[in-house]
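Lab notebook, bench 4. The sequencing result for the construct came back, and we need a structural model before the next group meeting so we can plan mutations. Quick request posted to the team channel:

Model the 3D structure of this chain.
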Amino acid sequence: MRVTGVKVLPVRGEDKLKAYVTITLDNCFVIRDVKVISGHSGNFIAMPAKKMKDGSYKDLIHPADKATRDMIEGLIMTEYNRVQAEIKQGNA
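Done. Here's the predicted structure in token form:
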């Protein structure tokens, strides 16, 4: 499996939510609503989730192993940081 596309849509005016991300796998499978969230230890990735009746959240999709999660998170954060740098320079 290869990540063949990462699109970051920055969110303005929110405290913790920093961006929505769409990723494409092997040019044929699209995952929307991945989130970049600001936490106590820095930014992290949240996979699309559904709110349960008890108020908790359950991931709708997620990587099955740590290596895949690390790879996807790395690509997302690299693109997020690139987009943020463009915004700061006034290019976006």
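The chain has one domain: 3-89.
Will bring this to the meeting.
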